[in-house]
Amino acid sequence: MIELSDVHKSFGKNEVLKGITASVQKGEVVCIIGPSGSGKSTILRCINGLESYDRGAISVEGLKVDRDAPSIVNIRTQVSMVFQRFNLFPHRTVLENVVEGPLFVKKEPRAQVLERGRALLAQVGLAEKADAHPPQLSGGQQQRVAIARALAMQPKAILFDEPTSALDPELVGDVLGVMRKLADDGMTMVVVTHEMGFARDVADRVLFIDGGVIVEQGPAKALLNQPQHPRTQDFLRRVLHPL
Amino acid sequence: MKGFWHDAVEFFPILMNGVALTIVVTIGSLLLSTVLGLIWAMMRVSGIKALSMLSASLINVIRGIPIIVLLFYLYFVMPDLGVTLSALQAAILGLGIAYSAYQAENFRAGIEAIDKGQIEAAQSIGMGWWLTMRRVVLPQAVRIVLPPYGNVMIMMLKDSSQASTITVAELALQGKLIASSTFKNTSVFTLVALMYLTMSIPLILLVRHFEKRAGKK
Lengths: 243, 217
Prior knowledge:
heterodimer, A: alpha/beta, six-stranded mixed beta sheet, four-stranded antiparallel beta sheet, B: mainly alpha, MetI-like fold, 8 helices, transport (chain B), membrane (chain B), transmembrane transporter activity (chain B), MetI-like_sf (chain B)
């Protein structure tokens, strides 16, 4: 469903992606792990056209991703994104955040969208916060609203960019719980994360990225329990046993 | 002091005619400068190089010309070019154009203060440039922009007195006319100053209100 082939991307002289080839099947949960600065987030941001790429090809459901083409709107309405820092709209209520895209981009009927929005808020456990403003919520609650906002677009896939990295440790579980439920329901997900437990239990496949290339990839449990490449082994050792 | 009150009662009605024109000039040029300033600011942040450079140079040209020269140009030079404006039209146009540069810089600062993550979130749900501006950026920028906007309103109220140089009989010119025909300079100009102050005070309070509201979050 999402195809990347030999994708290159530089920021100035700094080449962050050096030929990424990967694919994500429908219904699959793929976690991308790796050290910071390895290009993980850039991959996600290239998939929905928040960044351009220099060389190679990316397509979503056969549609080429080109951030300067009008078709990018089509791709973005099919592939939602959840950000590390939530990026909720602070001047709108929680419910308004959730229905913004369906109402103003997809122009769906209001009553129907509002009903769906409330149902989604209930699904992420925040039905009673519908009329609150985002700054009044905890980080974990904000991130769950952001997930509801992504779901409201009725996307075919959701990209998660380190969704729990900005959260207090005790709030991480709620967000991961919501994501696990999505995965169980068959949502196609690409998750950049440092939560190895989540990757092991929920992901179908894990990509280990370092220095702009995919160093190793494979089924989640196999890769995380018996990494083959020395760099993967070293990275996992340091993440899992930091002391 | 007794003389002042006597003069005040006598001159007040004439000066009120000036006040009316002062208000017309201020509101007219405020609206014009707001619209133009928004256009310049939008061009500036459009991401289209030609538009943003055009806007930047326009702003610099406008900023580099004194208001009074701009007024003279519109009122005395434009007729030579076949465009005749009434003094009032020239005043509103001149002040509006002059202040549009400051408005534009103010609006641009407000727009650019919005977190980039907001724009990315808008894009990620498929919003285009205009929808992102209208639904996400501008509503948040307004809060940031309002306090300096209030200050511009006060400055425009006072600078509307420059319209007197092209014969608009607003408050300052009315005062000058009375003073030069009665020689009661002290009474007249004290009265004029008090009337400007009276008009400024509500605006000053408004700015304070904006600042408090912007500071809340």
